[in-house]
């Protein structure tokens, strides 16, 4: 496998340098910039929401995701996802706490959210 095929930590930092860039990525992944009324969505200043320019309907891109109701930065979340996905046999909350510089409670909650999102339904 060539080195160009691997996604590294420097690639993550380059692609998601700020929370605004990460929020924009989440919005573009889950929603369209065009509203059904004919307007376009633009980011609301100082909030994690987008508002239609015509009907003023607001969308929170993090709603219904593992990032919902989290005070932790989106860049920190993405780094935690990167660390989790590169761990060969899982990662403990204590190790995640040390790597990303958050409290144990925060690291535990993040890992719990990630594992629940990845779990497969047995039904």
Question: Can you give me a brief rundown of this structure?
Answer:
The chain has 123 residues and is mainly alpha-helical.
Report what the structure shows.
This protein is mostly helical and 123 residues long. It has a three-stranded antiparallel β-sheet, with no helix packed on it. It has two domains: 46 residues, no CATH class; 54 residues. β2 and β3 form a beta hairpin.
Note the topology.
Layout: H1 9-15, H2 19-30, E1 41-43, E2 50-52, E3 58-59, H3 74-86, H4 93-100, H5 104-118
Antiparallel strand pairs: 1-2, 2-3
Q: What is the count of DSSP helices, taking H or I runs of 4+ residues? A: 5
Q: What composes the largest sheet?
A: 3 strands, antiparallel
How many domains make up the coordinates?
A: 2
- Please identify the structural class as seen in this structure: mainly alpha
Low-confidence stretches: none
Number of strands: 3
Helix content: 40-55%
Strand content: 5-15%
Oligomer: single chain
* SSE pattern, N- to C-terminal: HHEEEHHH
Cα Rg: 17 Å
What coarse outline follows from CA principal-axis ratios? Answer: elongated
Mean pLDDT: 89
Give the strand order of the largest sheet, numbering strands 1, 2, ... along the chain.
Answer: 1-2-3
End-to-end Cα distance? 37 Å
Q: Any descriptors?
A:
single chain, mainly alpha, 2 domains, three-stranded antiparallel β-sheet, 5 helices, 7% strand, elongated
């Amino acid at each position: 496998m060539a080195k160009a095929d691997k996604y590294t930590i420097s690639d993550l930092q380059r692609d998601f340098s700020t929370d605004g860039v990460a929020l924009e990525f989440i919005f573009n992944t889950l929603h369209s910039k065009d509203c059904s009324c004919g307007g376009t969505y633009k980011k609301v200043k100082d909030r994690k929401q987008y508002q239609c320019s015509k009907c003023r309907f607001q969308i929170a891109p993090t709603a219904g995701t593992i990032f919902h109701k989290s005070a932790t930065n989106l860049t920190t979340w993405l780094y935690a996802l990167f660390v989790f996905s590169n761990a060969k046999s899982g990662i403990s909350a204590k190790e995640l706490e040390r790597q990303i510089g958050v409290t144990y409670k925060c690291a535990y909650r993040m890992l719990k959210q990630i594992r629940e999102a990845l779990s497969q339904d047995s039904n």
